[in-house]
Task: inverse folding
């Protein structure tokens, strides 16, 4: 009874603390000292939430050892109350609050898991369905909460991208729509829309999570492929052992193993090959033209043989079509990264340097990921070429260098896939930038003063 009362008290504390912390936002107009005081209050609130979850976890484990029920349910309720709020504060602009949210998240993972399972990725994976439902509800039914959705998605994809990406695939399209709303907010159209930088960071985290997910899938596929040769080697070893046993038995005196009988067997084998060659040679002569052998064999086999040959041709055509579709259509994770590449074109044209840096990082990670599907990547990259080249003349030298790094990555990985006109359009800006910044400074600037 005391444990149950303590659990109820802790849950009440978590609820009230989170409600108070939510009301503390939107304090940019306050004096600097009061802003700092409110940030400290949010930091203490997050630390308190983390400690309450640790106590709920300890009470739950104590209840399991004593045979009492309800401890794990109380911890789950506490996590459901606080997890989303803690995740959205991981990307807070105030480092004091972001660090406190990270500490709270680590304490929550420690409360739920044990040993190697006490990780943030395991915590997010265990509560993935709840988080997906909460995000969908905010996006579709809570306009006031849409501005913080990119922060939550960035945290989810950064900590557990490979495991949560399949769950978040349904809301990725709405994340990209949020980027459009953020562009409108930058133009003064909406005050409730999210900021552009969190959206860009969430999109970059999406590309990195897609890369990790695709790498995990390729590792699993290569592991399955390596298992098949091992099985074949085992089978071959079994066959060789059986053959060796047969040879050891054949070493005994077996009837019919004399020399005369061996000569007769050799003559019969030579006669069999002669008759086989006399039947095959005319067929090869009839099938000298491409496909003539198969058609002649099908005609010689009758209607059943023709049906089998037609079925084989259909199977070959189907395999070629499937291979062509696999080359043109990337799987789920690279397809999500491709959607980000398609959206970057519009964002680069209207983004400040801080956002453009994040978008270029996303492109630098997306191009190697989408390299195996050039027919899907090249149309999006062609539309992106003009805004990317325009960044070469940016007064922000770091931004111009990052844009040239993306160009270098595309030219190195895609090579012959890029059109001559695209590369020709990139050369004059590159040469102009090299001429402007690659020349040695005048000697007057190199001489020491005085």
Result:
């Amino acid at each position: 009874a005391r444990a149950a009362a303590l659990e109820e008290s802790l849950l009440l504390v978590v609820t009230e603390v989170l409600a108070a912390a939510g009301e503390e936002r939107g304090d940019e107009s306050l004096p600097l000292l009061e802003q700092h005081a409110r940030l400290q209050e949010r930091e203490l609130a997050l630390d308190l939430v983390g400690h309450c979850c640790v106590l709920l976890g300890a009470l739950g484990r104590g209840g399991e050892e004593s045979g009492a029920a309800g401890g794990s349910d109380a911890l789950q309720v506490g996590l459901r109350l606080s997890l989303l709020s803690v995740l959205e504060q991981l990307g807070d602009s105030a480092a004091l609050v972001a660090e406190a949210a990270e500490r709270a998240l680590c304490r929550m993972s420690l409360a739920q898991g044990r040993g190697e399972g006490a990780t943030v990725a395991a915590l997010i994976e265990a509560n993935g369905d709840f988080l997906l439902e909460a995000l969908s509800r905010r996006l579709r039914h809570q306009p006031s909460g849409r501005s913080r959705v990119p922060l939550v998605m960035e945290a989810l994809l950064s900590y557990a991208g490979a495991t949560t990406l399949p769950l978040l695939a349904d809301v990725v399209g709405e994340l990209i729509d949020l980027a459009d709303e953020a562009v409108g907010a930058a133009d003064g159209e909406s005050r409730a829309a999210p900021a552009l930088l969190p959206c860009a960071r969430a999109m970059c985290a999406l590309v990195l999570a897609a890369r990790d997910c695709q790498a995990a899938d390729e590792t699993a596929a290569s592991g399955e492929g390596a298992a098949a040769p091992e099985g074949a080697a085992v089978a071959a070893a079994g066959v060789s052992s059986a053959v060796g046993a047969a040879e050891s038995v054949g070493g005994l005196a077996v009837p019919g193993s004399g020399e005369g009988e061996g000569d007769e067997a050799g003559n019969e084998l030579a006669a069999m090959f002669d008759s086989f060659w006399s039947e095959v040679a005319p067929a090869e002569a009839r099938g000298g033209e491409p496909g003539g052998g198969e058609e002649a064999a099908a005609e010689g086999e009758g209607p059943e043989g023709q049906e089998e040959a037609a079925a084989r041709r259909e199977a070959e055509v189907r395999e070629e079509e499937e291979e062509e579709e696999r080359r043109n259509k990337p799987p789920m994770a690279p397809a999500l990264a491709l959607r980000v590449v398609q959206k970057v074109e519009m964002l680069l044209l209207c983004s400040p340097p801080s956002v453009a840096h994040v978008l270029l990082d996303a492109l630098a990670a997306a191009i190697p990921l989408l390299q195996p599907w050039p027919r899907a990547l090249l149309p999006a990259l062609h539309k992106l070429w003009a805004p990317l080249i325009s960044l070469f003349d940016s007064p922000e030298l770091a931004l111009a260098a990052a844009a040239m790094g993306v160009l270098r990555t595309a030219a190195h990985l895609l090579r012959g896939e890029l059109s001559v006109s695209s590369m020709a359009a990139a050369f004059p800006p590159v040469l102009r930038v090299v001429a402007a910044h690659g020349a040695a400074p005048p000697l007057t600037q190199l001489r020491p003063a005085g």
User: Anything to note?
Assistant: Residues 136 and 171 are 7 Å apart (CA to CA). Residues 245-262, 283-300 have pLDDT under 50 and may be disordered.
